[in-house]
User: Fold this.
Amino acid sequence: MKNDLFTIGKFTVHGYGLMIAIGVIAAYLVGARRAKKYQMDPEPVFDLVLIGVIGGFLCAKILYLITIFDQVIADPRVILDTADGFVVYGGIIGGIFTGWLVCRIKKLHFLEYLDLLVPSIALAQGFGRIGCLLAGCCYGKETSCPLAITFTDSSFAPNGVALIPTQIYSSILDFLHFAVLCFLARRNKVPGRISAFYLIFYSVGRFILEFFRGDLIRGSVGVLSTSQFIAVFAGLFGVLMLWTLKRKKTEQA
Assistant:
C-alpha cells in the first residue's frame, strides 16, 4: 500500500490523513441527516462531531503514551511526535466524554445524541481502517494463508512479508457495524440502547481481532493486549447499560 498519494508543490496528501478526513465528514453528514430523520435538532451535530474528534484524538494519543510510558520516561521528546501513535479506545472514551460536556453546556439529552452519533462513529472507523491499510499500521501477524497482504513500502509494517489483512477485516466489520446500528435504531425507543449495542459489538469484534494483530507496540496487560483489556470492561459496561435501561423501563411500565 502507498500512504503518500500525491504531492502538490510542498504539500503531500497522505492516505491515512485523507481517510480520517473522509470519515469525519461522512460522520457529520450522516449524523445531521439522521437527526432530521428522527426529528432532532441537527444544529448541535457539527459541534458534537468537531469537539468529539478533537477530544478523541487527544485521548487516543494519551492512552498510547501510557502504553509506552517507559519510552516516554527515557525520551520525553516522544510526546511531541504527532505523526503516529494512537489507541482507538482512547479516542472512543475521549470522544464520548467531550460529547457529554457539549451536551451539558448546550442542555441536550446526552443519550439521545449519543445514540444518534454512534453509528457515525462506526462509519468513521471504517474509513479510518482504510487509512491504516494505506499507511501499513495496525498490521496483522505473519501468515501463509492465501488471504494475505504484503507491504513493500511501509514505515510501520514489515515489508516483503505476508501478513493477515487485519485492517481490511476491521474496516469491513466497522461498516457492517454501522449498518446494524442504523437498522436497530429504526425500532429503538429507549435512549441509550444503541450506544450500549455499539460498545458490546465493537468490544467483541475488537477483542477477537486483536489475536490476529502483529503490532505489539501497543502494550499489554498480562496475556491481553491493552485494547483487549479495555474491551472486556467496555463490553461489560455495554451489557450493564442494557440491563439498567431494561430495568428502568420495566419500573416505569
Summary: The beta strands are 4-8, 11-14, 149-150, 162-163, 220-221, 224-225. Residues 4-252 form one domain. The longest helix spans residues 226-252. The mean pLDDT is 91.
